[in-house]
Design goal:
The protein is globular. The longest helix is centred in the C-terminal third of the chain and has 39 residues. By secondary structure, the chain is mainly α. The two termini are 32 Å apart. The C terminus is likely disordered.
Amino acid sequence: MMLATLLAALDQTVVATALPQIVTDLHGFRDLSWIVSSFLVAATVTVPLYGKLSDLYGRRRMFVVAISIFLVGSLLCGLAQSMGQLIAFRALQGVGAGGLLPLSQAAIADLFSPRERGRYQGYIGSMWATAAVAGPLLGGSLTDAASWRWIFFINLPLGAIALVVVLRTMRAPAQVREHRIDWLGAAVLSVAIGCLLLACTWGGTTYPWGSPEVLATGIAGLVLAVVFVAIERRVAEPLLPLSLFRDRIFSVSTAGGFVVGAIIFAVSIYVPVFSQGVQQISATSSGVILIPFSLGWVAAATVTGQLISRTGRYRLFPIVGSLFILTGLVLLAFLRVGSPPGAVAGILVITGIGMGMTFQPYIIATQNAVAVQNLGIATATIQFFRSMGGSLAVAALGTLLANHLAGDLRAQLGAGASRVDTDRLLSGGSVPAGLSDGVRQALDSALHDVFVASIPLGVVALLLALALREVPLRTWSHESRTPDAQQPARERAAA
């Protein structure tokens, strides 16, 4: 499980610092967000399916499928020759990645009681620490010294090791039973999410917001979302049981996951853009900038997990963590051209601590609240909403950046704006002589708007943390449960 987590976490952290060079080589600045979004869309729509299938077939089998697909996608990404190919292969990679994190979290829930899970989530957090330190630095170093393609090839040996270890050693319980897979619901949900993300990405860039293309995709996405709900109400075994949303803990946790996912990608994608494009530091140094964010996250997650295991309480941590996140987002909005890298690192430490305190308690609370037969799908649903939040944030903020950058370039440079190639804007030495300062000011202004737009997400995260209800954590797991089947009900009544 730790190896699978490392595989997924490393892919997320290693790509961010290479994005500027990727769009430079493949000539697709306006499609920058889709390098991330295509991965997230595919990962998002497959998460519930992995959760459901793992409840039916067991975690081990689905782990093997997920890792294998992920490795094929990684190889093809490294071989991509155009932006369209890279986006398509990133989507295939996302199909595999959609199972790695939720399956590892669900397998932990199979093996350990909610009271113990905080401690073992700390072990999983150590993999995030490895990816946090190695990912951004490795991505920047490989991009500067060799090629961005190696950030995908590096997955192959790690994935091969993870696949062998899962096949030889993983013994997570599996209870195969009669089933019907909601393929229609999965297909409708996939198309609905794709339409909504296309509308967010196209709006104001490829097409005007009021254009038939944007309106048609947006409306189609909303209609298909309603159709998906109708399907889930009628099928015998829904992909996403709507009855789960009647539980306040589950509802708040999924909403919290959505907002946290949006904030993660708002920070991890656009802070490197600021560092390279505005502060004009190398890809390697930009990778180093992200390390404080990840280390603060992992340190806080490890301490939080230990405290949850010792006390059996979890509600306080997302509240305090949300305050840290909100503080960090506000401080990001004050970054400007002359801000020193040390200030950026300090802000990222604050934001990372908040993430570490907020990320896992929602999962622990949900796993403690749901029935055993819904454990996999409930865990996967939180990951689904987290990925959905990240997908929409990348698409919406990418659109905001592109729109404001075009306007700010015209304001700063006038007729000279036509001489700036946005595909090469973020690579060193690509700005025409005499225009460099104006371009930096324009990009600084556009990114300022992106960071300001992220602040309301921090406010919503705090409100959701305050709304989370606390139920005493069980001290038995589903594989070593006590004979008293009524214990969960009595624990809830006591709470």
